[in-house]
Amino acid sequence: MKLRNKSQRKSLHVALFAATLASTTIFPIIAQQFNPAQAATVPAKSADSFVDSIGVNTHFTYGGTPYERFDEMKSKLQDVGIRHIRDGGYNDPDFFNKLKNLGSVGIKSDIIFSGNSMGEVLDVVKSLSGSIEAVEGPNESDLEFFQFLI
Q1: What tens-digit pLDDT sequence spans the chain (150 residues)?
Q2: Beta 84-89 vs 55-57: how paired, if at all?
Q3: pLDDT at 69
Q4: Which residues have a Cβ under 8 Å from the Cβ of 3 and sit 6 or more positions away?
Q5: Distance between CA 89 and CA 112 in Å, rounded?
Q6: What residues form DSSP beta bridges with 134?
Q7: pLDDT given for residue 84 in this prediction
Q8: Residues 77, 85, 49, CA angle at the centre, nearest 5°?
Q9: Which helix (H) or strand (E) holds 104?
Q10: 67 and 58 in contact (C-beta within 8 Å)?
């Protein structure tokens, strides 16, 4: 086959290079990755354990948002099977009552505290017994100053 110009020769060289690369490197790697003899067995997990691994962030103290419609939000969380939420810990009795309400239907909370003393955190944990799974220290502490009190 006679190549008429430099462009045709370059195209042929690129095609030959690609074919060589594929046959000597890429195909063997792919074949090795999908070799059934080397596949490790992984025990199946239940769908329930997967659902139990899902959580969402909420903002029940954010005014002017759908979170103000607590009963509707609670219903939506239940409809999709959410069992874990994460929200900011504010010294707000209404907020804590919402978390207790969610806890009573199996939706447990992880609360973020920002600048609260350890005594305040422990008091909240005790008051939300059965509704709280975890507490966190300040979130995004690089955005504002927090004083850590013990």
Answers
A1: 565 677 776 776 666 666 676 666 666 666 665 556 666 788 888 999 989 999 999 999 998 999 999 999 999 999 999 999 999 867 789 999 999 999 999 999 999 887 778 888 899 899 999 999 999 887 766 666 656 555
A2: parallel
A3: 94
A4: 9, 12
A5: 5
A6: 110
A7: 96
A8: 80
A9: none
A10: yes
**In degrees rounded to 5, what are phi and psi of residue 110?**
-115, 120
3-state SS string for 13-73:
HHHHHHHHHHHHHHHHHHHHHCCHHHCCCCCCCCHHHHHCCCEEECCCCCCCCHHHCHHHH
Task: Give the tokens for residue 26.
Answer: 């890429």
Q: DSSP letter for 106, please.
A: T
CA distance 139 to 37: 47
pTM for the model: 0.66
What value, to the nearest 5°, has the Cα angle with vertex 24 and ends 21 and 26? Answer: 65
